[in-house]
């Protein structure tokens, strides 16, 4: 996914992506990433967990607004343990 | 047979998360040289934001991604932004998408982005969502890099998009 992200950013569009694998992201080097220690298949969290999904989207939007080149932001939400409002 | 062994691998990766790190450490990736950078042109409340995913999502009536080719499928599908979530499906044997099958927002936050738009957090939605199937290997990596990823980038520019939110599988 980082490769697609790099191509889109190169066309002049600001991009942010979720990563579930920091090792890969550190090597592919997308412009902005939000890293979650979540299982594959759950980049936005759990099914029907609106507050969780909204919080992650807000983290992505804020990263677009504030992060510098190569930033990997880590909200640190523990899988199935973090309480979202 | 290949699809069966994929299913076994998917379950192993689900149950043993550390396998993913081991897999990543042993695999080679297209490493990035430098970091492309396009700062936000205007505040998000005035920006048009698009979704791009590599989770294998597509309109159910559309051609599925190729699950027969061991090297994956570097093509992409176009999803009109107003498509209701129920009209979408996932073709991707390389991860467990049972949660996303029940709620597509687990891999593609389409309803959450609509809410952010309704709340004025973002100015607008891209007219189209672009979707890849994240398993791309062998010769298809070149196709992705040289053909399909740049095609999507150009289409997003034509769509008048200021920013893209990208979600993996």
Structure explained in plain terms:
The complex is a heterodimer of chains A (85) and B (169). Chain A is 39% helix and 15% strand. Chain A has 85 residues and is an alpha/beta fold. Chain A has a 3-stranded parallel β-sheet with strand order 1-2-3, sandwiched between helices. Chain B is an alpha/beta fold. Chain B has one domain (42-167). Chain B contains 5 helices and 7 strands. Chain B has helices at residues 2-15, 18-26, 98-102, 110-118, 140-158; strands spanning 48-53, 57-59, 76-80, 88-90, 124-125, 128-132, 163-167. In chain B, strands 1, 3, 5, 6 and 7 form a 5-stranded mixed β-sheet that branches. The longest helix of chain B is centred in the last third of the chain and has 19 residues, at 140-158. Classes of the chains: A alpha/beta (85), B alpha/beta (169). Strand 1 (14-19) of chain A pairs parallel with strand 7 (163-167) of chain B, so a sheet runs across the interface.
Give a nutshell description of this structure.
The complex is a heterodimer of chains A (85) and B (169). Chain A has 3 helices and 3 strands; from the N terminus they run αβαβαβ.
Q: What string gives the helices and strands of chain B in order?
A: HHEEEEHHEEHE
Q: What is the chain-wise order of helices and strands of chain A?
A: HEHEHE
Mean pLDDT score of chain A? 96
| Strand count of chain B | 7
Query: Which stretches of chain A of 5+ consecutive residues score pLDDT under 50?
Result: none
Q: Name the average pLDDT of chain B.
A: 91
- Amino- and carboxy-terminal Cα gap of chain B: 22 Å
SS-derived structural category of chain A: alpha/beta
Report the sheet-strand fraction of chain A.
15-25%
Please give the structural blueprint:
The complex is a heterodimer of chains A (85) and B (169).
Chain A: H1 2-10, E1 14-19, H2 22-28, E2 32-35, H3 50-66, E3 71-73
Parallel strand pairs in A: 1-2, 2-3
Chain B: H1 2-15, H2 18-26, E1 48-53, E2 57-59, E3 76-80, E4 88-90, H3 98-102, H4 110-118, E5 124-125, E6 128-132, H5 140-158, E7 163-167
Parallel strand pairs in B: 1-5, 1-6, 1-7
Antiparallel strand pairs in B: 2-4, 3-6
